[in-house]
Design a protein that fits this description.
By secondary structure, the chain is an alpha/beta fold. It has 3 domains: about 1-185, 3-Layer(aba) Sandwich (Rossmann fold), CATH 3.40.50.880; about 195-380, HUPs (Rossmann fold, 3-Layer(aba) Sandwich); about 400-495, 2-Layer Sandwich (GMP Synthetase, Chain A, domain 3), CATH 3.30.300. The chain has helices at about 10-20, 65-70, 75-85, 175-185, 195-210, 225-235, 255-265, 275-280, 290-310, 320-325, 365-375, 380, 400-420, 475-485; strands spanning about 1-5, 25-30, 45, 70-75, 90-100, 105, 120-130, 135-140, 150, 160-165, 215-220, 240-245, 270-275, 315, 330, 335, 355, 430-445, 445-460, 465-470, 490-495. The protein has an 8-stranded mixed beta sheet with strand order 2-1-3-4-10-9-8-6, sandwiched between helices. It has a 5-stranded parallel beta sheet with strand order 13-12-11-14-17, sandwiched between helices. Strands 18, 19, 20 and 21 form a 4-stranded mixed beta sheet that branches. Helix 2 links the parallel strand 3 and strand 4. Helix 6 crosses helix 11 (about 365-375), helix 8 packs antiparallel against helix 9 and helix 13 runs antiparallel to helix 14 (about 475-485). It is globular. The structure holds xanthosine-5'-monophosphate. Xanthosine-5'-monophosphate binds near residues 292 and 500. It comes from Hydrobacter penzbergensis. Pathway: Purine metabolism; GMP biosynthesis; GMP from XMP (L-Gln route): step 1/1. Keywords: ATP-binding, Glutamine amidotransferase, GMP biosynthesis, Ligase, Nucleotide-binding, Purine biosynthesis. One of its GO terms (cellular component) is cytosol.
């Protein structure tokens, strides 16, 4: 295992993902959190930071103590902090370096083994190391800065390295190789952290954690809850009781299709048809937050009622993933915010259940790999995200059963055609929105007065920012025809060309 000490860089999670991609397990902790040098801990990486090491309140750690125990690699701020701690000098550089630079190697070293001279690296710093401490040597420079990579020399127990560039970002073409050199050659990591080993270890751990107790879990049809449930099922079989609620605002045939997949996976899942209850409570509600609240609350009611039917439940399974639990280090001092889980959160503490969260340390792409390893069908694994309140926040204004059916029909055409034209996997999320306006159209000799739907498709990495997907005109023309010709009640289709920000992905 590798520990990444986070000083608040926007790239810290990318470092973790790059380390995991090399099949080495790692965890991110805030730089000021204490940790133990447990067996199996092989090295430490210091992240970048929005701070300058020369600021009065600049965050710091005891690097000299670390290298008594383990190899250390400082990245960007981490490298500057290293230089400064040992008596070097870091200054505002005349030339700030942002973006592309070329690495010029000055010395052979295992850290830069197999890295080509002139290799493109990505920089993002306004301070630079202007003088290295005594007993340190330069490994590489760039055109603009004298110290792009360095190491401490001498007889320390463990090596200490610093690099000014960001090996974790895509634009550092050989950055992953540099990280791998550190992990494998310098720290001696074995690269044995794979989806298969994760499954074996996690199942063993779940068996131990759960013992012979019962677990309940709300399933949503999404990737995270499905993978988490499959893992738990592998550990304890039918003592995992899944509950999948039809809230009336799922996609067309979704309830039946997803239940079918669960059965094929051998999961013990109860499907609960609560459509009527949801439609009843949604009646007359037009405010988006009010609709969200109704759906959230009813879901909890249904879930609680169902769980009371199961005797001796001690645990609650959840599909929480790593980005939801990483504590972020903020520029405004070491405050920590923990994001609450978007999807299944909000179950009351009064249920007195202990949490089982087998995906708590996985990134989304890793969850997908583990899912495939578990034999979950690829179309389930590669599904777009779908909001908990479902189509209710894609029907602007009041939700009625008729409107749901109208939207389901249009949405189904859109999604099926995206798949047929091999466009589904090129977008991050797609869906259809039913607008609360009717407009005039003409079909044959008849004048129509019907609804409009908006098509939405976005590209994104994490849903935080997004761009509208540039779907081909021919495809959009085809969808418009298909929807208007096949869904009675819709006579106009528009395409949403707003990015996030300033718009959002959903319309409510
Ligand atoms: P926005 O609309 O905020 O959406 O750009 C970002 C991502 O979050 C999803 N989303 C939700 N998911 N409950 C959810 O579980 C919600 O209330 C909710 N609102 C938005 C949205 O689908 C997109 O993936």
């Amino acid at each position: 295992k590798i520990l990444i000490l986070d000083f608040g860089s926007q790239y810290t999670q990318l470092i973790a993902r790059a380390v995991r991609e090399a099949n080495v397990y790692c965890e991110i902790i805030p730089y000021h959190q204490s940790f133990t040098f447990e067996d199996g801990l092989k090295g430490i990486i210091l992240s970048g930071s929005p701070f300058s090491v020369n600021e009065e309140k600049a965050p710091a750690v005891d690097i000299a103590a670390f290298i008594q125990r383990l190899p250390v690699l400082g990245i960007c701020y981490g490298a500057q902090l290293t230089a400064k701690c040992f008596g070097g000098r870091v200054d505002k550089s005349n030339k700030r370096e942002y973006g592309r630079a070329r690495l010029q190697r000055q010395k052979d070293d295992v850290l830069l083994k197999d890295i080509s001279d002139g290799s493109q690296v990505w920089m993002s710093h306004s301070d630079s190391i202007v003088a290295l401490p005594e007993g340190f040597e330069i490994l590489a420079t760039t055109e603009s800065i004298p110290v792009a990579a360095f190491r401490k020399t001498g007889n320390d127990t463990h090596p200490l390295y610093g690099i000014q560039f960001h090996p974790e970002v895509y634009h550092s073409t050989e950055g992953k190789k540099v990280l791998k050199n550190f992990l494998v050659q310098i720290c001696g990591c074995k690269q044995d952290w794979t989806p298969a080993s994760f499954v074996t270890e996690t199942v063993a751990h779940l068996k131990q954690q759960i013992g012979d107790h019962q677990v309940i879990m709300a399933l949503s049809g999404g990737v995270d809850s499905t993978v988490a449930a499959t893992l738990i099922h592998k550990a304890i079989g039918d003592r995992l009781h899944g509950i999948f609620v039809d809230n009336g605002v799922l996609r067309k045939d979704e309830f039946e299709k997803v239940l079918h997949t669960y059965r094929q996976l051998g999961l013990n899942v109860k499907g609960v048809d609560a459509k009527g209850l949801f439609y009843g409570e949604l009646k007359g509600k037009t405010d988006p937050e009010a609709k969200r609240k109704v759906i959230g609350k009813l879901f909890i009611d249904v879930f609680q009622e169902e769980s009371q039917q199961i005797a001796g439940v001690k645990f609650l399974g959840q599909g929480t993933i790593y980005p939801d639990v990483i504590e972020s280090v903020s520029v405004h001092g070491p405050s920590q915010t923990i994001k609450s889980h978007h999807n299944v959160g909000g179950l009351p503490d009064t249920m007195h259940l202990e949490l089982v969260e087998p995906l708590r340390f996985l990134f989304k792409d890793e969850v997908r790999k583990v899912g495939l390893e578990l034999g979950i069908p690829a179309d389930m694994i590669n599904r777009h995200p779908f909001p908990g309140p479902g189509l209710a926040i894609r029907i602007l204004g009041e939700v009625t059963e008729e409107k749901v059916q109208l939207l389901q029909a249009a949405d189904d055409i859109y999604i099926q055609e995206l798949k047929k034209h091999n466009l589904y996997s090129t977008v991050w999320q797609a869906g259809t929105i039913l607008l609360p306006v009717k407009s005039v159209g003409v079909m044959g000799d008849e004048r129509t007065y019907e609804y409009t739907v908006a098509l939405r498709a976005v590209t994104s990495v994490d849903g935080m920012t997004a761009d509208w997907a540039h779907l081909p005109y021919e495809f959009l023309a085809h969808i418009s025809n298909e929807i208007i010709n096949n869904v009675r009640g819709i006579n106009r289709v528009v395409y949403d060309i707003s990015s996030k920000p300033p718009a959002t992905i959903e319309w409510e």
